[in-house]
Amino acid sequence: MDNNMQNDIERLMFFDHARLAAEATYVKNPLDADNLTRWGGALLELSHIQNPSDSKPMLQDAISKLNEALLINSRKHDALWILGNAHISYGFMTPDQIEAMDHFAKATHFFQLALEEQPGNELYMKSLELASKAPELHTEVHNHGLGPQSLGGVAGPSSTSSKAMKKKNSDFTYDVLGWVILAAGIVTWIHFAKSYTPFRNRAL
């Protein structure tokens, strides 16, 4: 088993445990905004490892949980930022340009709100900057039949594309959006590691 596959399996197990823990906590306290944020973040991360038919429903569920957290605390900056990433992900999973643009606009809105709650946060500023490039990237991605592979399973390049074009498109996709998705993953890993260390130890 190569390292990438091993990492995916560990990531899947980690966030699935986090999802289950959040579900259990929700039964006891449905008004815990931190728990709802963790739940939405876990679903977002899991959606990136699914096939296309499973990714979009999981993203919709993540968006629902994060919106629920914001109903409890509308100024929760981490929930706002993760919700922005969920809308970015959903937009790239959507071939229809008008629908995708709506999700990108929502992502920009939530990134801006997150930044207003934490002025000067470099991650939020970078996310807002890169979200402005999402419409252009969406057009490039779907014109070449390339789904953003980091977002969990949109169809890859057609078999008739040259290897050079595949690499060019993949590099373009990664360079523009990959930073946001990777940053989301890194920050979410840290967030969950702090919250679920005892749970992880029991699972090992």
UniProtKB/TrEMBL annotation:
GO CC annotations, alphabetized: mitochondrial outer membrane translocase complex
What domain of life does the UniProt record list for this protein's source?
Eukaryota
Q: What is its main location?
A: mitochondrion
Membrane-spanning residues: 172-192
Q: Which InterPro entries match?
A: TOM20_imprt_rcpt (IPR010547), TPR-like_helical_dom_sf (IPR011990)
Per UniProt, what is the membrane topology?
Answer: Single-pass membrane protein
Q: List keywords of the entry alphabetically.
A: Membrane, Mitochondrion, Mitochondrion outer membrane, Protein transport, Transmembrane, Transmembrane helix, Transport
Subcellular localization, per the record? Mitochondrion outer membrane
> Which GO biological-process labels does this protein carry?
protein insertion into mitochondrial outer membrane; protein transport
Q: Which family does it belong to?
A: Belongs to the Tom20 family.
| Protein's job | Central component of the receptor complex responsible for the recognition and translocation of cytosolically synthesized mitochondrial preproteins. Together with TOM22 functions as the transit peptide receptor at the surface of the mitochondrion outer membrane and facilitates the movement of preproteins into the translocation pore.
Record's protein name = Mitochondrial import receptor subunit TOM20
What are the top taxonomic ranks of the organism?
A: Eukaryota, Viridiplantae, Streptophyta, Embryophyta, Tracheophyta
